Protein 1
Amino acid sequence: MLDLRHTLRRPVRMTPKEPVARCGDLTLSYEQLYERVSRLANGLLSLGLEKGDRVAVLALNCHRFLELYYGTMFAGLAIVPLNVRWGAQEFAFALSDCRPKVFALDATVYEHLKPYIEQLKFLGVERFLFLGEEQEGVPEGMIAYEKLLQSASPEDPDIDVHEEDLVGLFYTSGTTGNPKGVMLTHKNLMMNAYHAQIAFEFRDERTYLHAAPMFHLADGAATFTVTWNGGIHAFVPRFDPEAVLKAIERYRVTSVTLIPTMINWLLNHPGVERFDLSSLQKIMYGASPMPVDRLKEAMKVFRCKFQQGYGMTEAAPLVTVLTAEDHERALAEGREGILSSAGRPIAGVEVRVVDDEGRDVGVGETGEVLVRGPNIMKGYWNRPEETQEALRGGWYHTKDMARWDEEGYLYIVDRKDDMIITGGENVYSTEVEEVLYRHPAVLEAAVIGVPDPDWIQAIKAVVVLKEGQSATERELIEHCRQHLSPYKVPKSVDFVKELPKGGTGKILKSVLREEYRRRYGSQES
Amino acid sequence: MLDLRHTLRRPVRMTPKEPVARCGDLTLSYEQLYERVSRLANGLLSLGLEKGDRVAVLALNCHRFLELYYGTMFAGLAIVPLNVRWGAQEFAFALSDCRPKVFALDATVYEHLKPYIEQLKFLGVERFLFLGEEQEGVPEGMIAYEKLLQSASPEDPDIDVHEEDLVGLFYTSGTTGNPKGVMLTHKNLMMNAYHAQIAFEFRDERTYLHAAPMFHLADGAATFTVTWNGGIHAFVPRFDPEAVLKAIERYRVTSVTLIPTMINWLLNHPGVERFDLSSLQKIMYGASPMPVDRLKEAMKVFRCKFQQGYGMTEAAPLVTVLTAEDHERALAEGREGILSSAGRPIAGVEVRVVDDEGRDVGVGETGEVLVRGPNIMKGYWNRPEETQEALRGGWYHTKDMARWDEEGYLYIVDRKDDMIITGGENVYSTEVEEVLYRHPAVLEAAVIGVPDPDWIQAIKAVVVLKEGQSATERELIEHCRQHLSPYKVPKSVDFVKELPKGGTGKILKSVLREEYRRRYGSQES
């Protein structure tokens, strides 16, 4: 039986006195964490929660978030980590979808959410758990987290668990309006722990920094593996370059997961060289490949291994990895193209790239990425039809478009939904965006298809310019014409101050398309 | 879904042209092996076999044995690797127990088995598959393996598989008369592949030598992991010191699994220093710890890492590992006691040591080893009661007696059934044996309990003396008295020429007890 509790119970047995968490000035040992997790589990059960009930968590990174991951699991409950960047609409949808009995939130979040608390109750939330130090003011009607722990038994409740039981519901912003709750089981997350162990060669890790948000599996990919290895979790409440650099120095951090934008921010941070970053052994990054120049610079500044992971919540999340050796080889052999790939399928996970008829495409041809393995989700909460559609034929259909090279490296080309069909030709939006990014005045760019009487869809670029820089529509179109086939060149360019973004800083082209669809007053995108 | 076929399909996709098998002068590439495995699967299916049917294999080590492991799996059949050391009684029992439709055997085995072929048919075997080169004489009525492959389709049949489907039945000589068929599934063996990958740090392995018999999971612990890593399998037909040393030199072998007796034989082999063993990176050994002096000598001669695994067929098989670091640390820090332990539980497997009431014992106390994990067998074939007994409470009851030390190292003390209760005191037979082994004239020793009117059981030592050496009963008893508490000293010593042994060279005390039970004419042991 695959039981995710094993990732905590094992090091508790092996190294009970060793530190497991460093949060601000607090240090917890494995036996202390185990006791707090057991108390939390018993405390939640004492509130009347039953196996399978959901516990929503909305919080910045801290040791209590880690305790909540384990505490819900040890109580047989399902955690629902919510995105701190969500708007009211998304919260309302997710909460009415999963109906958590308990909603855990910290002081920072509470300040923002105060006006809506009554509405949350209306959505079925019965209890609020306030995450904070004992002495802090606990809002009326809320349960103090530390008090709940104090009053509960310190014994592991050791409930019966089946490997297909839910550990969590992870909401993912789909391309279609409402977020979907990805159901991940003990088996899914335990198998990802094995996969991360092997693919990222977790072994000499001592201290892992939670710098990316803990509600997201980009950071969560490593969480259970770090514990399993008897490592230490360090935390910064939210990503902030100065805070991250300070934490690396203070806690002697050995590994961290970042998204490329965050690496960028660290590189651009004035005085990055003031910090002692010599403890760093590896930076894992994901969500997207990095521009080669930035990567080279990062490797120079941070002087550690770089590993890129590609995956998605539905795969719990790891699918492919561009290993540290791949990075070194690419630079040593002058084959930098590999650095723009997502790496190769990790051991344990099968990947196919197929055409519209479900046939494997040849090397260099583009198709949809399908994934199979013990890590693939049980399904979407409350969505049997979308589950069946996504998992048809026993493979998870990612809607990512990609191609293989001769050596089995996978290149993500675009989201299937972001592909534009214009005048009968397929255009991958990312290809056009890459050209736009090369223009010195462009800070951010998103390319979408908009309704057009002649072309069905016409290519539109939506661009944010760098501060103090300028460029005209004609100039950018001319720039594209120099680097792209004529049919790939945008027909129009709009300039905006900001692009819509998701939890990890990804530009949400779906939201953009929706805006333009409304603006054009059409059902077609 | 956990699918053991993945261990072959993955490297076929990643490195199709690389070698996977070296057997005599033959080298097979991954795509060649994949084709042969697919042909074998289709060939077996063309004989009318259906999902779940058993295929018995009785053969010395060779690439065809590897093909049979994969070929049966790709056809949805269950392999039943039989022990080449078995006698007629055990064969008869196992075959009538599992009723294989096909019996695969090689020329060497055939020579021994010829007189019994008709009786095998009587036991339900319908077809015989003769493993040999095409040109060799195939006995009448038998199917030539190579011809079967030639006539079958080279396409992977890609049948539907469930992770709980059987991959094989592995007969294990229990302590109670007849062997039991351990049912191992895709999930069990795939999880062991993950475990071996992590615990043995399989990564830089290139060439693994099958020196121990392939029908046994001591060797099989690494088989699927080697393939999964894109490594090379090299083979010697059976363990022979000269052949093994030659093979290491010839194939530039990097890793091998041996049992301590085999390491001993290699060390004692005249002219071991003539061979170029510089390619060796690690020796995995198991079935029992090694005497510290021999281990030190082995580390000096082979100049590579040593890793000890403890496990059993029911656990597919790995449970604990004494890592290479453990070995180095023990020697560097002068803490050689650790070398007599079985190491610590591997990541993914839970181990408890419990008393007769099922309570965890404290450090230093002896109890039975219980094991839980995704690697634990589905059960014993045709034996629901013994299955329930062995797996009661969700834990596999190993019948191994052991104790923990403060650092979580596990020391196997004895088999539960080998423990002697004499005058109300527990005596662990191995402790007495270890003392006997220290006597210069003793080659082998087995200590058992025999019926006794006063003591219920009295301690008897059965001893094989070294050639040219002599010792009397009184002398050995006196030797024991100097090193053991009085109640642990044997009451009598018998001298024999040979002790009964199992497939891996383990002394079968169960057989010995049975002999004495008959001799004493009692039902008590």
Protein 2
Amino acid sequence: MTAIWDDVISLDERKAYEAAGFGKRSGIGTRPALLIIDVQYRTIGTEPKPFWDSIKEFPTSCGEVGWKAVSQIEKLLPVFRKNGWPVIYPYVAPKEAFDTGRLADKVPALMGVAAKGYEFVPPVAPAAGDILLPKRHPSAFFGTPLTSYLINNAVDTLVVTGCTTSGCVRGSVVDAFAYNYRVVVPHDAVYDRSHTSHLVNLFDMSAKYADVMSTDETLDALSKI
Amino acid sequence: MTAIWDDVISLDERKAYEAAGFGKRSGIGTRPALLIIDVQYRTIGTEPKPFWDSIKEFPTSCGEVGWKAVSQIEKLLPVFRKNGWPVIYPYVAPKEAFDTGRLADKVPALMGVAAKGYEFVPPVAPAAGDILLPKRHPSAFFGTPLTSYLINNAVDTLVVTGCTTSGCVRGSVVDAFAYNYRVVVPHDAVYDRSHTSHLVNLFDMSAKYADVMSTDETLDALSKI
Amino acid sequence: MTAIWDDVISLDERKAYEAAGFGKRSGIGTRPALLIIDVQYRTIGTEPKPFWDSIKEFPTSCGEVGWKAVSQIEKLLPVFRKNGWPVIYPYVAPKEAFDTGRLADKVPALMGVAAKGYEFVPPVAPAAGDILLPKRHPSAFFGTPLTSYLINNAVDTLVVTGCTTSGCVRGSVVDAFAYNYRVVVPHDAVYDRSHTSHLVNLFDMSAKYADVMSTDETLDALSKI
Amino acid sequence: MTAIWDDVISLDERKAYEAAGFGKRSGIGTRPALLIIDVQYRTIGTEPKPFWDSIKEFPTSCGEVGWKAVSQIEKLLPVFRKNGWPVIYPYVAPKEAFDTGRLADKVPALMGVAAKGYEFVPPVAPAAGDILLPKRHPSAFFGTPLTSYLINNAVDTLVVTGCTTSGCVRGSVVDAFAYNYRVVVPHDAVYDRSHTSHLVNLFDMSAKYADVMSTDETLDALSKI
């Protein structure tokens, strides 16, 4: 079986993980929710452009790879809405004067993003009935009432999309796994500014925390619920 | 400036992160604690052996790379004890019959590790006064009272060691960052069964969550508190 | 309608709460779990005795009122086991040398309880398959993976028993409510060393967080699931 | 020593708590923060009125007792601002369409409070530099990044004011205690719609979680830091 990370993770490493017993499937339950994480202009720009052009508009932009992922999220979104499954938007809250701390230390550029950057990207923007979840830290669970919403909606499975693969997606997936949610990461519906890091984080998540598959495979799996 | 991940993360990717403003230092505070995560026989075996031999004893073993990291942790440990800085051992709790869930789904091999595997590795085992923290999930913060111990001890900085770089270390570092602790990851005192994943996770943490440096550099920084 | 707290909470106060809209029922779901909190010898003694005698054995004992509640928990327990509903034992973990902090400040007597005091009370002790949850703080959710177990078991309702009404029961109920679990507190299956505080905490929980009813009413409601 | 709850908690009950070792002081540290919880028009009305008149404006109003507490908070606030100690406003976030759940079940009247009710009460309203913390659940810690702000500001002590004593104040105090913060509750700077519940919750907190004293005693203690 081939995987998208085969060019980055060596055959020997893949065999080592297999021998140690990692990477089984956790499967999909009966009540999924869709997480669309940080799909705001600040992470892809107001229009598709190559990375180096796009970061001129927003230093936090991932550029074109983000727009490609958005086109995949556009396939998932109507399926959740049609089935009445929760659609949840954890998103970066605009910074306040009191938001000093380690984020401001490590990535000071994040503190001065223009207001426009916090707007949702129209093709996959929230609609009435969706759950909005401002957040100040990587994981969608950290310092937010996400778990309360999931419990109230009897959710057992999370389909996690958005960005970045190595940042807020990864952090949210690790927490979702720890809470015992079944997690699916459609690898073409998440994005990152580093292709290598994107692939290795998908490998990590597939080995330990989530079922990683394409958006089309995800749609197929959801159709069988 | 060169970094240990330069062979895996391309120059173009590194430039992209730099242009976007990532990877600044968060620095060290005045009251550090040492986290020694999962340094139990189950992650390195009862004696140093190459990976493929070591996993015959424990499928979860990382083999020789783990023993090398232990020799670095041995340098850090006396410094913390001498200064009266907290030494904390988040460790994998032996599995109970009721520990089903996503971990058992994704990595069933983890559920049958022999009791010996849960013992601490002698050179860096807990001593009287250290804080023991059994855990059932990747992050040392998840489902544990770690934050309460840190607050009680007025800790502002965490030096995170142990394993795996891409698993419990990464998960703990992301949470520590979110709680606004200053985080140092000595790259030669953490270990993983995949060298690629080890390096990319160090790159990710250095870009966004922690100051990554060698154990010797860490010792030097601590000596200046 | 009369309630057990009518002698302590004045009619005027009860009318005020009613006028303000408090105290509606949240109801029972379809998948309940039973929490038996801190029913260890330390909270009732090794045999039924009046309070003032019982605290000579364990200063933390509530005495006879605890034994009465245990006899009610004995009615609930077989119903959960028979239906395969989760039975969960959040319990006070024996103190370690590193367990200093605010609890040791406020109630130093708690730090020296004899080992015998941590044993479960036989009539309602854990059986194979039950979930054990050592805790160091009042709420069964705080610093424990309780939520992960509940999500893994698709629980939507918690029946909370044990002690003390004003301490670990109250703390756990407030958190359960915040997580959006439906909560039932059988008022004769929880106990406290202060009768007044017991009643007022039941009133508070009934007004805002839980459905408070007798064990018999609880059994009746459970029989209709 | 007399206490404000002596008329509600019997002498025998108070002796029982004393014999069992409860109610010692945890003391004040060196870096306090002030929590002003839910002091919005919805909890006291837009002007001081007796309870039964005030709830006509907002069903959640506590009426005149709230205004009296506000006058005490007015004494504390300048001391914190002058010393550069953090001032934090956990407040009830306006309800969204997706805020169904147990709160809507138990207290449906809370879901329809007019927008004006969410405004801060002018005499103790936030100023530039204060930390704002919208919340959806009783405790100021639940589903919020409060701990991250406290750690970033090296806080070791919380002075908790606002309302209600038996609701969000109590819930926040229990969590603050569990996180090992030293907690002071100035009994005349917190308020509740039930005087009995107010007093018993103060007794509970004093016995187990916090140092309860008057605002004047709090000011005196703070002056010695």
